[in-house]
Amino acid sequence: MDGNKKYMNPYLAGVLLGMLIVLSFFLSREGLGASGAFKRMVTKAQTVLMPSHVENPESNAHKYVADGKDPMKNRLVFMVMGMFVGGFISGAVHNRLKIKLQHNPKIKSRTRIIAAVVGGVFFGIGASFARGCTSGSGLNGMGTLATSGFVVVAFIFGTGYLFAYFFRKLWL
Amino acid sequence: MGPIFSTASEWNYVIALIIGIAFGYILEAAGFSTSRKLAGVFYGYDFVVLRVFFTAALTAMLGLAFFGYFGWLDLDNIYINPYYIGPAIVGGAVMGLGFIIGGFCPGTSVSAAAIGKVDAWFFLGGVLLGALIFDLAYPLYKDFFTGGARGKAMIYEDLGMGKEWFMLVFVIFGIIAFAATAIIQRKVAKRVNKY
Fold first, then answer.
1. CA-nearest residue of chain A to B156?
2. CA distance A124 to B139
């Protein structure tokens, strides 16, 4: 169990999040995002470990380093750094800071770890194909009425429901 | 009239950091730092994801529309995600699998990792690995990834509706979804175990 289970009213959280999206577009022309930061972290590591790959203009990573760009010098990288800080502050305020592997007691810790890694891999691949994750492609897309956002969200949740039965032992 | 800063402005880094702090705070405070709550949307015992997510989408939609009407923000000059039909469908479907298996999405896993959830750290490792795999195997699907480009496709145009009519329908759809899922949750939540 978490320390403190009192969570913010979800509709209030949604309104605050929506206003944050408007503010982001108003100030910086773009919305929220998370996966873009992780793609750039990978590219940054690749510039050290496999420099010839990122310098190849045919590679996908090349777009993050083209014209001498530093992949980490990107607003989404800063946003994700902020998200760690913000999440930590909320955890501290609400007495929820605790090192813990949270999982259904009916499954082993190892099963949860494998599922978390595999789920992350799927998300990393999917967010690359969809040019953004739940926030960058889905939330921004719906807020701006972009077709891409609605399609991506429909397929995230549609596939989730379609396969929920097969993975029910992980959660129920 | 907004947007205030051009894409090249370095102020965007400062703004992104501050907005990120608020973003991470809200996600954690809403309970997105626990995979159990997030996965609940797929089994009917907790619809917090749907509530927060669609309230945020509706608020952003209406807020941006009003900013446009009042002339505060040039809606033709904000970033609209380009629509690539195949990649959007495949990407969404693969992310759906990732969600039901991993119990997080990238943003929520950051807020969970920040309060010490070890499973979220493993998920983040997976996200990095997935991004690397996509990059290394890129030649296999380069044509698919760049194909089916529809540019700045807008949902109301694709549906042949006026923008205002679409917004009205979306708001009504949202309210019905909020009410229906509240009823479902009341019935299901009693029957599942808590952890």
1. A145
2. 17
Measure in Å the smallest separation between the Cα of A91 and chain B Cα atoms.
6
Cα B167-A144-B160 angle, rounded to 5 deg:
50
Tokens read off for B77: 């000059």
**CB contacts, 8 Å: B122 with chain A:** 113, 116-117, 120
Q: Structure pTM?
A: 0.96
* pLDDT tens column, B11-22: 999 999 999 999
Distance from CA of B186 to the nearest CA of A (A): 16
3-state secondary structure chain B: CECCCCCCCCHHHHHHHHHHHHHHHHHHHCCCCCHHHHHHHHHCCCCHHHHHHHHHHHHHHHHHHHHHHCCCECHHHCCCCCCEHHHHHHHHHHHHHHHHHHCCCHHHHHHHHHCCEHHHHHHHHHHHHHHHHHHHCHHHHHHHHHCCECCCCEHHHHCCCCHHHHHHHHHHHHHHHHHHHHHHHHHHHHHCCCC
pLDDT tens readout for residues A48-81: 999 999 999 999 999 999 988 999 999 999 999 9
CA distance A25 to A14: 17
